[in-house]
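Session log. Operator J.P. requested a structure for one protein chain; no other inputs attached. Running the standard single-chain path with token output.
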Amino acid sequence: MASIVGLRRKKIKIQADQFTKIEVVDGQQRLTTIAILLRAICKQLDPKDSVQARLATDLTELLVKRDNTSTLLIQTNQDLSNHFADYMRTGAHPTIAQATTAADRNLLEAIEECEAFVGEWVGQGPVAVVDLVSCL
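Structure written below.
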């Protein structure tokens, strides 16, 4: 993975934690893809398995800060249809055929590709998804 370039912006407070908002100058697509991959992993984790359920909770809390606005770890300024934001918050997304712009189509294709990739790992056995997270 190549370098990511960002500009520090203001500090924001979410619940008791303080974060520095960073505007990504170079690397937004890589960060967005990693976030989508993590969300796809969350969807595949088994809520009945205590280790996987805890991992799903931890990943979800990383991706979506549970304040009064459900602030996202990564916010894009190209997501006019809110497909990325909705996927991060709920795991739901429309089909690629429902995309109305090239940007929407690219985003929805990335979501489906990440979900297919994670699905292949799930097919390898019950601990495969947990192992996938440890690779990240």
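Operator note: The CA atoms of residues 96 and 109 lie 6 Å apart.
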